[in-house]
User: Fold this.
Amino acid sequence: MSGGREEVRRARYAVAAVFAVHGSVAGSFATRVPWIREHAGLSAGQLGFALAFMALGAACAMPLAGRLTHRFGSRTALRGLLALWTLALVLPSLAPNLVTLCLALFAYGASSGMADVAMNALGVEVERLLGKSVMSGLHGMWSAGALTGSAAGTLAAHLGADARAHFALASAVLLVLGYTVCAWVLDVQPAEDEEPPPRFALPPRSVLLIGAVGFCAVFAEGATLDWSAVFLRDRLDGSAGLAASATTGSMLTMAVARIAGDAVVNRFGAVRTVRAGGVLAVLGGLLIVCAEHPASAMAGFALMGLGIAVVVPLCFAAAGHAGPRPSQAIAGVATITYASGLVAPSLIGAVAQATSLTVSFWVVAALACGLVAFAGVLGAAERGDRAEAGSRSAAVPDPQS
Assistant:
């Protein structure tokens, strides 16, 4: 792929819009989890079991994203995968019982994971061509999209709307938006002699420790997205609308932190940023478990969202710069982090079934400590990025210079 800096900048805005569409689907779903649970007649433990299939589907399908990108090119592959993801939003609301919900969430997660890998690989390519950090801002657009989706879901919950109608409308709007903005993303084509990536491969050894940091962050993020509304509803007797707004508050802090994250990382470095975020996430977890009023718990969820905001973007960026095939390395880190998403819903549900949701969020706070303890593994990737900054900044000529 070749082109001027203006073309790359345009592609940056396009992929940022893709991130926003992807996040809007996730935010729409998260706010209606209580409705889905009641519609399917599930206990907390059964809901946790079903939510695990979402991450299981993602982990199984993500390695296929690189293969599809290699075969069809980055633009066509992303357009198709994003369309599948927006359409899959409708499936969980149609499930009347545990079995059908598990199947629906598996398909939902599979489409999510493949689109996730494809759009992050394009984000890394834009970052390479511009010669500066943009991944945190792109993930900030994901959070902004999730905020928009969760805000619409909160309104739907306040109005008592059926989630099937809500999801059908959201899916149609996001399908059109996603298809349109994909016209301006980078169209990266493989070299004629380039071997296609394997259909399935274990994560490269070079990204295992990076993935471990992402694991801790995604565990906390997944717990917040999937269980914050349930926590306020069951533990603190909040209304359906108030419970849904807990997700909105967390998404708001994550969006703000990620949009500002590139500037913070450039000033303080990845290691210091992640360690400081880990401290905030732990404090947020403690505020949640000690909450006696919905406002306190909502503040805790917001603080946790602030603390974990930039961790996953930094992990994906580090993985994308770790080798010649960004999509394969990102898929490796994403597989590890999505494994956290696989463990989190079922573990939280199982602990809640055996004890309480309060004890479940003690587990979340404990894992957030891992961000403080293991942030140092991003140091090597950070030094590598600085060493390559000079050569990458010259990769695309500026026609105005």
